[in-house]
Records
---
Amino acid sequence: MGEVRYLKEIANKLNKESDELQGILSTVNKKLAELNLGLDVWCRFKSELLCKTGNGAWMLGYTKVQDDGWCIAVKEIEFRVDYVGTPEEEWHIEAESESISLLKAPREVRIAAAEILSDLIDALKEEAERGVKAIEKARKIADKL
């Protein structure tokens, strides 16, 4: 039978861990800002907790947010899923909320975001590499003129 005292113990631990997570996310956010990437990148949450029934979910990204500048951010989306001749699903975003800083997001969103933070870092690296290649290609074209 569930007892309130056990709930109190886990609630205290959750609060402590959540405070520590906030510090971790703040540190990562600061380090990313120092890189001055200026790249807008988004990742889909994998957590079933944050994929609502129907066609709503959250996305984690790095973007410029009003009043917060470039930061790790989240936004809610509405989407439809298509299976275009393959077992892989393809998401089509039909509506999205305004992005907010992850540091201002609800606790459950911050916790779920922590699970895919490495995916966001990987996506930023890939986008930066893609940008460098595009600039190098443009430079070669300019040099040939």
Note: Residues 4-144 form one domain.
---
Amino acid sequence: MFKKITSFFLVLLFSLFISTSFSNVFAATLTCSDDLTGKVFISEFSSATNPEWVELMNIDADNSVDLSNCRIAILQRSGSGLSSVAKTLTGSLPRGGFLTFSLDYESLDDAGAVLSFQDSTGTNTYYAVSYGSYTPAQTVHVAVRHQVVSLPKYPMEPEVGI
């Protein structure tokens, strides 16, 4: 009886060891060549600090994201037209994690802009968010991976910290 119980616990411990030791073996690292729609979001940003910053969130609990071929694109008003700048990203976004990037000083217009997470060429936009006080008539259309979404620009409510 003691041998059966001991054997059972040894098998149980070995199974736990194997499942925890090799759980990351099957996890993949995604890149911006993969479809990251619904996996990576712009979770926070600040246009009122120096330096300005953007935070990305990876909600995929199984896969990290290699950001070496990704960028944050900023589309905003410039005089009577629009201007666009992009920050090429580096590093790895951990699975279920966050990563913050500083931007060049005054990259973000305090009046409003559209920030988008894209591949390095800007061909694929995986997530976009807008802020500011533009009227709905000044809505910018951003193609987000096979669909066009309208991003009306309304003032954001300030985030309350805990």
Note: Residues 49 and 105 are 9 Å apart (CA to CA).
---
Amino acid sequence: MDDDAREGSENRSEEAALAARLSRLGKRLGDGGATRLPQQDVRRTDSSALGQGLRLSSELVAGVLVGGVLGWSLDHPALDAFYMRVNALGLPIVLHPACEPLEYVATTPHERLPLADHDLLTCYGRPYNTTVAVLRILLSDLLDRFPRLRFVCPHFGGSFGLMKERIFSRYYDLGMHDKLERRLQRLAFDTAPPRWSKAQIRCAVETLGVDRIMFGSDHPIEADYVDRAVQIIESDYFTDAERAHVCHRNAEAFFGLPVSEH
């Protein structure tokens, strides 16, 4: 069994065991869980096989986590079978970026890879990938073709949360303002990692809207990320009303979770 097949088998076994355990406890994974899909399941093109590989049901899970390198941009037609299945279930897709951009291939000379040194793949590769992913989702017809599809994008959308108007003004000039703003309502963004300044967070809140932002930490990338993320969310970076939206209200609405009384 190759590594991908072994990972897929292990993930499906873990998901089945978790679902059975939760069922015995009288719980639902929909009370706050998301299932992580191995890459080979996301890349399946046969819809019936994909349905079995996903092992998803809207009665069991609240979302789908997709991370790592798929080898395709998120609007690639080869992902349509995956999107069709998730769209039918009405589940949000939680994204996590890879470090390496798609154009980084083994045959590219090192001098043509500007992010290859100084740990730039970690520091800027992920924000770059996230920004490109957000833009390709919004500028393609993906969300129009799959009307129940929604995404949670990490890290305030990369640089998108800070540069939305700078990037989109070109497309607004082409008459795409209403279309892009409508599509943007199907995206949410998290606050990870806890490395933002107050000015950057205030910019993202004002740019994206506080009703589109959810708490995130990037734990366990760094051991202290949860503590640092909590310190930020409890600081004067947010008002009390904004904090309630970011900490639970937005997630409750986006994932269809029970509404907290807090």
Note: Residues 192-262 form one domain.
